[in-house]
Amino acid sequence: MKTRAIVGALCAVGLLSSGPMANAEDLEVLHWWTSGGESKAVGVLKDMMEKQGYVWKDFAVAGGAGSNAMKVLKARVLAGTPPTATQIKGVSIDEWAEEGVLANIDAATKGWDKEIPPAITKFLNYKGHYVAAPFWVHRLNWLYINKKLLDQVGGTPPTTWPEFFVLANKLKAAGIIPLAHGGQPWQDINLWEGVVLSKGADFYNKTIVDLDHGALTSATMIDVFDTVRKIASYFDPGTAGRSWNLSSAMVIQGKAAMQMMGDWAKGEFLAANLVAGKDYLCVPRPGTAKLFMFNSDSFMFFKKDGSDAATKGQVALAETITSKDFQHKAAYYKGAIPARSDVSMDGFDSCAQKSHDDFVAAIKDNALIPSLAHGMVQRDATLGAMRDVVTHFVNSNEDSKTAVQKLAQAAKVM
Ligand code: GAL
């Protein structure tokens, strides 16, 4: 006991440095992976870093899509005490880089340009230097269906909105909650953007990517809002404020039949030992069969002591995240597919296999669609304004014509 205390003290002052303590740099890591499946995935990283002798300081801030974590991050950076790394997605990386607070991790990026698709890497660098490391690719436009409940009403997976409503009516008539939704702003816009996508990739690109005024106020967009209104009529009374993983739990436990969510929800199904294709189905949301709406999580690294270059620990984190071993293990638990294209898909479930094939095809066919809701298209201010419009619509009796006018106004917020 005494010897251990002395060795510990010597290590702390740097007089002894062998074994795992050799790397004893603290890694304070901000993320919002707090659900069952998410914790397993981030746990893989924690273990791998601890094995290399780093001290993992978990800084988890619960709240789907990072809604709370990103507020906490801003406060920490403003206070001049950023974490070592933070979970982040897409366009925000550039916004942070412009503030001059990010460290470059070029030292960790050997092979990335070859093994990680440009659709992912284009978000990760700033002025020619990598500042973030990619975890995986999530497919957003999934619809999950509890197989037992589907069979109970003699239904089939819907491929169009009319088919969806036929099924929802059957379920409702049988006393089953058709759709588990969580009434939070990011989930509302996640649902809405899936309906926009069902109008085709061109329409999505014109409205969501180009913010074209004519398309934003078109009859097609009015129809999108009408469809969302109709979908919302199948929500259950417990919808308001519910987190996404509780909605997944409802489908897992047979309390609701369907959920529309990105494939991190699959991590929950896996953690509950449900088998894809047998206990539950995952199908593209109505009208989006050939399309792949995606986001990709990454860790972004902050400058420590004013130096542009990442610390040893930050480089090790980035290297570990993009190692083949981590990419395979963590994507499996997370319900995602690896960001690296040279990682084997062996052992992944049938949904992930399909996701992988569809991702490869979508890259070829130019059918890869960045998610607005998950920060892959517009900057924070624009996204926030559009999200407010959609969530207000979902939670009020506003008519679709008013909503599209507000949407077009919101799209001008830069
Ligand atoms: C997404 C993120 C996922 C998952 C999800 C739910 O934005 O990409 O990794 O955490 O939010 O919180």
In CATH terms, the superfamily of the largest domain is Periplasmic binding protein-like II
CATH second-level architecture of the largest domain: 3-Layer(aba) Sandwich
* Adjacency order of strands in the biggest sheet: 2-1-3-13-6
What is the average of the pLDDT values? 94
**Number of domains as seen in the coordinates:** 2
Main pleated sheet: 5 strands, mixed
Q: In the CATH scheme, what's the topology name of the largest domain? A: D-Maltodextrin-Binding Protein, domain 2
Radius of gyration: 22 Å
Q: Regions with pLDDT < 50 over 5+ consecutive residues? A: 1-20
**How large is the count of helical segments?**
19
Helix/strand/pairing category: alpha/beta
**Attached small molecules:** beta-D-galactopyranose
Strand content: 5-15%
For this structure, what is the CATH class of the largest domain? Alpha Beta
Describe the structure.
The protein is an alpha/beta fold and 414 residues long. Helices cover 46% and strands 15% of the residues. Strands 2-1-3-13-6 form a 5-stranded mixed sheet, with helices on both faces. α9 packs across α12. The chain is globular and about 65 Å long. It has 2 domains: 18-137 and 295-365, D-Maltodextrin-Binding Protein, domain 2; 139-293 and 373-410, 3-Layer(aba) Sandwich (D-Maltodextrin-Binding Protein, domain 2), CATH 3.40.190.10. The protein is built from 19 helices and 15 strands. Beta-D-galactopyranose is lined by residues 32-33, 38, 64-66, 89, 138, 244, 264, 295, 297, 374.
